[in-house]
Amino acid sequence: MKDVQFNPDDVSSYECFDCGTVVRATTAACCPDCGADMRNRRTPIE
Ligand SMILES: [Zn+2]
Questions:
Q1: How far is the C-alpha of 2 from the C-alpha of 38, rounded, in Å?
Q2: I want to staple 41 with a disulfide (CB 3.0 to 4.6 A). Which of 13, 17, 32, 34 is the partner?
Q3: What gap in Å lies between CA 6 and CA 31, rounded to an integer?
């Protein structure tokens, strides 16, 4: 059984919904460039 665990110390990539800027950080609330929402770009491994 596989558990997906999010380590708070782990650095992930976040991509801006609006301008596509990608940042690597532990958390990303909003884009440093345009202030839009960011989404986690965690790559699914299948
Ligand atoms: Zn942006």
A1: 27
A2: 13
A3: 21
